[in-house]
Amino acid sequence: MAKVIDGKAISSAMLDKVAADVSALKAAGVEPCLAVILVGDDPASQVYVRNKHRACERVGIRSVSHLLPADTTQQALLDLIDTLNDDDTVHGILCQLPLPAHLDAEQVLLRIRPDKDVDAFHPANVGRITIGNAELLPCTPAGVMEMLRYEGISPAGKHCVVIGRSNIVGKPMALLLLAANGTVTVCHSRTPDLASFTRQADILVCAVGKRGLVTADMVKPGAVVIDVSINRDENGKLCGDADYEAVSKVASAITPVPGGVGPMTIAMLMRNTVTAANAQSR
Ligand code: NAP
Q: Can you give the C-alpha Rg of the chain in angstroms?
């Protein structure tokens, strides 16, 4: 049976460390602050934003919410970002996605000052990740790397297969694994015979968002399976892309959903906010 990689426990240890860093910053006269922008009343986004505020509370980061109505104009949103960019007491800015359809998310993300871009979605930060000198790392892939490190699983020399190539998860995940000396294959919706690639994986990262996509026969015995996805089964229960029960019998280690990568993402957001506050107070 695979070892269950406990994202809750690992993120909790990380948050303790972040809280200590926050205390040190405060002692030096800097109060780290995260500004979160939420446009509209999407229930899932409201839950994500609430969880982010709770994490801030836990580690001592000041958090400020900007809850804007669904009919907010592009200009009003950009003006708010400009104000937050210029506010020296705000170190991190996060605009919760998805935005309502009439808003241009790309333009919004471009407007956030790169050194306050705690999601690391700005092209300047993506470029730095690509060349390997980033300070702010994309939260979900960086959370996966932290989990691997915590478990003593090095990607070096391993074949790492990432399913999914989104800008938020798949692509930066591949870059971080490559930077850690993995040999990386990226699969996507146009990949023929997905199983022929997944069966070669020493480390398999699933980031598609399709329940049941990864079955036990697609996993090499002894592989490490990291399931990033958050889906719901027919009973409304959260689940990932991998058939958890069956894959657990083949893999050497696996992340559960929930309680796997999800908590790590928020912990990395806290860490990025502290990193940003540190950099801005230098
Ligand atoms: P996304 O933007 O929808 O990207 C999905 C990717 O999967 C795309 O690259 C797509 O390929 C690929 N794909 C679709 N069908 C496929 C198939 N049959 N075989 C192989 N690849 C296929 O999603 P995302 O934002 O990356 O998120 C992925 C999942 O992670 C979602 O379930 C999301 O909820 C979850 N997530 C979790 C966290 C967390 O904190 N745990 C954070 C972010 C996201 P194409 O590029 O060819 O279309």
A: 19
